[in-house]
């Protein structure tokens, strides 16, 4: 009975280790600088999500004026889907706009990218427009 309990304990430990490793693998990346336009930093970050990724964008207004930050500038954002160095497809999402006060930032809700392509990485792209409000 004691050997059986040790096997169960070892199995539970292995399961907990695998779950913890999987959870760590599902963390958000650090923010990456996409572009700086008119004293506004546009950043994105990526998180593995099922058979694809989630991508979040943010606008960081380093000026003192209130601005409107458009990620997409009236067009869709696009996500290049890669397996290794080979492009295996792309997905799109609607562009977004938000007002950002001077010295403030705004993070847009995350959205899915590259679902169903078995991609190992994603490369976000968007046109950017910054306007005074």
Walkthrough of the structure:
The structure is a single chain. The chain has one helix at residues 2-25, and strands spanning 32-37, 40-49, 52-61, 67-71, 77-83, 86-93, 96-100, 105-107, 111-113, 121-125, 128-132. The strands form three sheets. Strands 1, 2, 3, 8 and 9 form a five-stranded antiparallel β-sheet that branches. It starts with a helix and ends with a strand. The radius of gyration is 20 Å and the shape is globular. Helix content is 18%, strand content 50%. The model is unreliable at 9-24 (pLDDT under 50). By secondary structure, it is an alpha+beta fold. It has a single domain (28-132), classed as Immunoglobulin-like, CATH 2.60.40. β1 and β2 form a beta hairpin.
- Give me the Rg, rounded: 20 Å
- Strand percentage: over 45%
Tally of DSSP β-strands: 11
**Average pLDDT value?**
89
